[in-house]
């Protein structure tokens, strides 16, 4: 469906995203109508989906969506939890009408109920789980698009996009890819620059998993506070010492200055030298007597 145009060819980055999300991994069973969408079968019995055919069908589905003049006439449905968040994000990005959760029977056929709708295009996440809207769409001639696994029935499905519609990463990535291609074909975003919206926003998150993450963060914060409390001590208060002027209120004793005469000093020096000579001679005599 790309018409051998380089612009519409699948890029390496897209292939890496498909492989990381497990889009190429099908089921262990295969419907006979999905046989030409598979590449081969692994030793463990899991079928490998041909990503080239996935990309071609993705472009065909995007062209069918862009052909609808009023985006609100496109109805997207996901009864499974793994696709409800992705469906809401797709509707927010493209302006489509969404039905997440349980589909009320008679929405497309019973005109007297309040939820009656007349869409021009229907997109479902799983043909097996969303069989009721597909059946009603066949009654009122509504074209349908579906994300199909290797074991999905293709009854009442006009455009089947082969992919892994069981994993929440694969489902979120497929809706993100479809949203991006629709916006590119409408001219809302350019193919020259990557789309700033991350695929993570389309992934389903289990409420129990979110609650466990919040509890783990709370326990980590409490442990950090306790650790800081054990090792940190309150800072001691520092008071500026008072400076006392020592010159105030202190009596300075008066010491009389004694006068020394020069003659007495010279006599002391002479007597000291005499004593030194006598001590040296005594030490010499003592050493001579020993040796």
From TrEMBL:
Main location class: cytoplasm
Instruction: Quote the subcellular location field of this record.
Output: Cytoplasm
One example of the protein's molecular function in GO is:
structural constituent of ribosome
The record, for PROSITE patterns, names:
RIBOSOMAL_S2_1 (PS00962), RIBOSOMAL_S2_2 (PS00963)
Q: Which Gene3D superfamilies match?
A: Glucose-6-phosphate isomerase like protein, domain 1
- Can you tell which superkingdom this protein's organism belongs to? Eukaryota
Domain Small ribosomal subunit protein uS2 C-terminal per the UniProt entry, residue ranges: 202-267
- Which terms are listed as keywords in the entry? Acetylation, Cell membrane, Cytoplasm, Membrane, Receptor, Repeat, Ribonucleoprotein, Ribosomal protein
Any GO BP: translation
Instruction: Enumerate the CDD domains for this protein.
Output: RPS2
Q: Which GO terms describe its cellular component?
A: cytoplasm; small ribosomal subunit
What is known about its subunit structure? Monomer (37LRP) and homodimer (67LR). Component of the small ribosomal subunit. Mature ribosomes consist of a small (40S) and a large (60S) subunit. The 40S subunit contains about 33 different proteins and 1 molecule of RNA (18S). The 60S subunit contains about 49 different proteins and 3 molecules of RNA (28S, 5.8S and 5S). Interacts with RPS21. Interacts with several laminins including at least LAMB1. Interacts with MDK. The mature dimeric form interacts with PPP1R16B (via its fourth ankyrin repeat). Interacts with PPP1CA only in the presence of PPP1R16B.
Entry's family note: Belongs to the universal ribosomal protein uS2 family.
Name of protein: 40S ribosomal protein SA
Query: Which source organism?
Result: Salmo trutta (Brown trout)
Q: What is the lineage of its organism?
A: Eukaryota, Metazoa, Chordata, Craniata, Vertebrata
């Amino acid at each position: 469906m790309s018409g051998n145009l380089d612009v519409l060819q699948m890029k390496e980055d897209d292939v890496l995203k498909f492989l990381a999300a497990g889009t190429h991994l099908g089921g262990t069973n295969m419907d006979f109508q999905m046989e030409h969408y598979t590449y081969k079968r692994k030793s463990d019995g899991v079928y490998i989906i041909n990503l080239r055919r996935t990309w071609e069908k993705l472009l065909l589905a995007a062209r069918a969506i862009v052909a609808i003049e009023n985006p609100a006439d496109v109805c997207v449905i996901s009864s499974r939890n793994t696709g409800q968040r992705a469906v809401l994000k797709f509707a927010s990005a493209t302006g489509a009408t969404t039905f997440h959760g349980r589909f009320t029977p008679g929405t497309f056929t019973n005109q007297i109920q309040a939820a009656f709708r007349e869409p021009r295009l229907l997109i479902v996440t799983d043909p097996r789980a969303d069989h009721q809207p597909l059946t009603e769409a066949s009654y009122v001639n509504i074209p349908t698009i579906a994300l199909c696994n290797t074991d999905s029935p293709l009854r009442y499905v006009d455009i089947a996009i082969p992919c892994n519609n069981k994993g929440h990463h694969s489902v979120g990535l497929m809706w993100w890819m479809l949203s991006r291609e629709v916006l590119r074909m409408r001219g809302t975003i350019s193919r020259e620059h990557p789309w700033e919206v991350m695929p993570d926003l389309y992934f389903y998150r289990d409420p129990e998993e979110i609650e466990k993450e919040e509890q783990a963060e709370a326990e980590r914060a409490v442990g950090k506070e306790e650790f800081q409390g054990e090792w940190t001590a309150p800072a001691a208060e520092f008071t500026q010492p008072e400076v006392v002027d020592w010159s105030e209120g202190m009596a300075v004793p008066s010491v009389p200055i004694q006068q020394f005469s020069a003659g007495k000093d010279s006599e002391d020096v002479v007597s000291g030298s005499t004593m030194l000579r006598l001590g040296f001679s005594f030490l010499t005599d003592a050493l001579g007597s020993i040796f």
